[in-house]
Amino acid sequence: MTSNKSYGYWSILFSVAGSLLLVASYLISPNEPQGMIVIGLQIMLLSAIVLLGLGVVTSILAIRKKEEGIKKYIGILLPVIIILFAVLVPILMGIGFMLNDNP
Description:
Layout: H1 7-27, H2 36-64, H3 71-99
Helix pairs in contact: 1-2, 1-3, 2-3
């Protein structure tokens, strides 16, 4: 059943699932996590990272096999967007605070 699916399909599936788990781990985390919720959040975060990594790997395999369509690029695009968002938001906020510093 899974052998007839293309690498592009698996790339999208892994990347979207990893992105959803990453967002879900931030949405459900309380301000001060205690006990088993910490372990649950760590498992969710680790599985999100693994799924995003699998999405990148299957995307690279799809590109090497020269599959048709744009599905093969989604596995690389989603982690790059997440990384850019995590890096650029604090930088842009800092620039905004510097520009609005009216003495």
